[in-house]
Design goal:
By secondary structure, the chain is mostly helical. Helix content is 72%, strand content 4%. The protein has a single domain, classed as A middle domain of Talin 1. The chain contains 16 helices and seven strands.
């Protein structure tokens, strides 16, 4: 390249992309810094904060992809997943805090139920909309034929997205967390044992993947990540940290007004507040994750995209649940389990059952169009039926609690049948995980980075 085409080894085109993405975040950052969000209409607030989240999602994706040169790809994706769902942590922590701060009052009891409802809603959206939607988008989008992860199959809606076998560890830990989640409601609340087990699972997972090798011959990057990977260390590492810090901050300060703005827009058209908090707010807070994965798929990095979704589900199903109990206890001023009512117990069982079924779908490291459709239809039918009943459009022959238990049973039956039918795939998964864990234990050192 000529001198006019580069700046410090990075092309002007790449700098332009970085400036453009950062530019999307600046309007909301300026509004937040001067405390002027209250001066705008709800629609304007949602639009500006949403655009800011979009820009931050670009920066976050580029940072994670650049980091793959220096750390194991699984670890880079895990960091990406945690940062991408940080908005959901922030929104849910707010309800958990209120539950502790107003413990013993009607407001505190309601906040505890809302914390659980928001958490279960976010987890089910991540699978019912995220996993299913991204799988369908990957297969049906223009240019899918050029994606090596997409395989054409004979039969009705039989085309599949093949998944990276390197996510065997994530699937195994997710299955373990799901099994424990079925027991969480039995104690009547999220307590210290749940925190120790679920957070412990995630810490153990990180210890395993961080000992992996840096994959220098992995997927070839293009555009901004490819250019940034050519920057020598320590400047490359500082760039990655700066992208993570800035985008994480922007998402953190934008997501609450974005989510609450959507809630207000929903309630203004007659959607019940509780329904909005369980479904619309999580959908808003999950938006950075869905945008990030969509960007990866558009770059024909479907494998990395789906890996990020699985990793996000794992950290939400472990760290998020643990975060609720910890934040609640801090607000309370002493240790206390986060309590919830019978309906929220059923919500947790249903969320665990959906997770169980989804894992059964991908235990053979592939998901077809029809499987993704079933995943989405089951999710949408339960949410849709409950919404129509709340609005008085239909009258259900069973209570809301019984409806949740019925769908829980359906997911468990379907998931069990799939695990039995795919027992060979399960055995292979166990072997892969055993080899990975053994290798991590025997390595005893940190992965070497590549310059």
């Amino acid at each position: 390249m000529t001198r006019t085409e580069t700046t410090g080894g990075v092309s002007l085109k790449v700098l332009g992309a970085l400036v453009a993405a950062t530019g999307l975040t600046l309007p909301w950052l300026a509004i937040w810094l001067v405390g002027g969000a209250h001066g705008f209409s709800t629609l304007t607030t949602v639009a500006i904060s949403g655009i800011g989240i979009l820009g931050a999602s670009f920066l976050l994706t580029w940072g994670a992809e650049t980091a793959e040169k220096d750390v194991p790809r699984a670890f880079a994706i895990a960091v990406l997943a945690v940062l991408a769902v940080a908005p959901e942590y922030a929104v849910d922590a707010l309800y958990a805090w209120n539950a502790g701060q107003f413990a013993g009052t009607e407001r505190g009891i309601e906040a505890g139920n809302l914390a659980v409802a928001n958490m279960t809603g976010a987890n089910r959206i991540l699978i019912g909309v995220g996993w299913a939607g991204i799988a369908l988008f990957t297969i049906l989008r223009a240019g899918a034929a050029a994606d090596t992860a997409v395989k054409k199959q004979r039969g009705f809606l039989a085309d599949v997205v093949t998944l990276d076998r390197d996510i065997a560890v994530e699937i195994a830990f997710l299955l373990a967390a799901t099994a424990w989640a079925f027991a969480v409601p039995l104690g009547g609340g999220i307590d210290i044992l749940d925190v120790v087990v679920l957070v412990g699972l995630y810490v153990l997972y990180l210890l395993v993947i961080i000992r992996g090798d840096v994959d220098e011959a992995g997927e070839e990057h293009v555009g901004v990540p490819a250019a940034l990977q050519q920057v020598p260390n320590p400047y490359r590492a500082l760039t990655v940290l700066a992208l993570f810090a800035y985008s994480g901050l922007l998402i953190f300060v934008a997501v609450e007004p974005f989510a609450h703005g959507l809630e207000k827009l929903g309630t203004s058209v007659g959607i019940p507040s509780f329904f909005m908090i369980q479904w619309i707010a999580p959908l808003a807070s999950e938006s950075p994750e869905l945008v990030i994965v969509t960007l990866l798929v558009l770059k024909s990095r479907s494998t990395a995209g789906f890996n990020a979704l699985v990793s996000s589900k794992l950290n939400q199903w472990t760290l998020l649940i643990g975060t609720l109990a910890v934040v609640h206890s801090i607000a309370l001023g002493q240790y206390g389990a986060l309590m919830f009512d019978q309906k929220q117990a059923a919500e947790i069982w249903l969320t665990a059952a959906q997770s169980f079924f989804a894992i059964a779908l991908i235990v053979d490291f592939r998901i077809s169009v029809r499987e993704a459709c079933v995943l989405f239809v089951l999710f949408a039918s339960q949410v849709g039926a409950e919404f129509l009943a709340i609005r008085g459009i239909i009258e259900l022959p069973v209570s809301s609690y019984e409806l949740l238990l019925m769908f829980t049973g359906l997911y468990v039956v379907l998931g069990t049948a799939l695990f039995v039918a795919r027992r060979d795939a399960v055995a292979r998964l166990v072997g892969d995980v055993s080899d990975t864990v053994s290798g991590a234990i025997s390595s005893g050192g940190q992965p070497q980075s590549a310059d």
